[in-house]
Amino acid sequence: MTYRIGYLVGSLSRDSINRILSKALVRLAPPSLELTEISIRDLPLFDRDDEQSPAPAVTAFKSDVEESEGLLFVSPEYNRSIPGPLKNAIDWGSRPWGHNSFARTPTGIIGASTGAIGTAVMQSSMRSVLSFLNAPQLNAPEAYITFKPDVFGPDGEVADAGTEGFLRHYMEEYAAFVERVLSVTAPGHVGDRD
Ligand code: FNR
């Protein structure tokens, strides 16, 4: 079995360390995962007035999320929380009421920071949001990555064997989690996405 996994990078920065981390995760993922980025860059700011007739970028985003069998969030922590662009994307995906694109989709949350706690507070906030949205989450291993430029190459090469082994293990555990969740839910059943 292979699983279609959409990943969202929570940073819009050209030099994003989380984009580099996402490249490392794609490299190290087991062959059962087909990882494709779901871009959040072109989404307008969330406006409840546009929920019923959203911009084409929103419709495309929601359909990319819904077609994914699993979702992986690779994000920085901004001011001890979820970066605005990522929260904006999640808000669009959650609406309108009754059309929550995230429901029942197995998720993983991982992030890199230049600081010592490696996005732990952002991840805690994400867990609350994803719980409210009824998205199952990989609980363990947790992955709080302190980014070191000498460890990660620009295309996601990982120079340190310990870090590489940990990230490979994380992706293997995520793949096993996706398989477990999908074996007890009906994947892609749109009527369940509420
Ligand atoms: C940060 N940074 C940061 N780091 C952290 O560990 N905890 C935090 O709360 C914050 N807050 C924060 C706010 C804002 C607005 C910025 C721009 C940055 C530092 C952050 O970890 C660093 O800039 C990373 O490089 C951001 O990830 P990307 O954008 O490179 O993927």
Q: Could you walk me through the main structural features you see in this protein, from its secondary elements to its overall organization?
A:
A five-stranded parallel beta sheet has the order 2-1-3-4-5, sandwiched between helices. The protein starts with a strand and ends in a 10-residue tail after the last helix. The protein has 194 residues and is an alpha/beta fold. The protein is built from five helices and five strands. Helix 1 links the parallel strand 1 and strand 2.
Give the helices and strands, then pairings.
Elements: E1 3-9, H1 17-28, E2 33-37, H2 56-67, E3 70-74, H3 84-93, E4 107-113, H4 120-132, E5 144-146, H5 161-184
Parallel strand pairs: 1-2, 1-3, 3-4, 4-5
Bound molecules: ligand FNR.
Describe this protein with a few key phrases.
disordered C terminus, binds ligand FNR, 5 strands, alpha/beta, 194 residues, 5-stranded parallel β-sheet
Order of helices and strands: EHEHEHEHEH
Overall morphology: globular
Largest sheet: 5 strands, parallel
Second-tier CATH architecture: 3-Layer(aba) Sandwich
Low-confidence stretches: 189-194
